[in-house]
Amino acid sequence: MASSIHIKLEYPEAVSLKREALLFEESLLKIIGKIRAYNALKKKEFALKSKIRKDLIALKNLVSSIETTLPKEEVKAIGEGYRTEEIKKEIKKETKVLREEGITKERKMSDIEKQLEEIRAKLARLG
Known about the structure:
Elements: H1 11-69, H2 84-126
């Protein structure tokens, strides 16, 4: 036989406990809803990944079938028919372009960081 313990509560205290219990239940229901939505998204993600995998396999097969139908050309080794100095110059040009692009990206990132700092300062001023 189970024994019961009774606690006497004042009305405002009982209302407060009831309100907290309802808020807790509401939070749990929201969490359950989010978990269900997450599970649905995971299923959708899995389906999309498997479709992408199938499409990539089909694409790979298509590329290999196209490669077999294309005429083959012999590739000359570096040094045969090419000047190594010209190749080195092209590589230097490409490297220089990539470095310049990297610098502009860094500048853009620093601009973004400055804007973020300004926004954070404004938010701090607002309280």
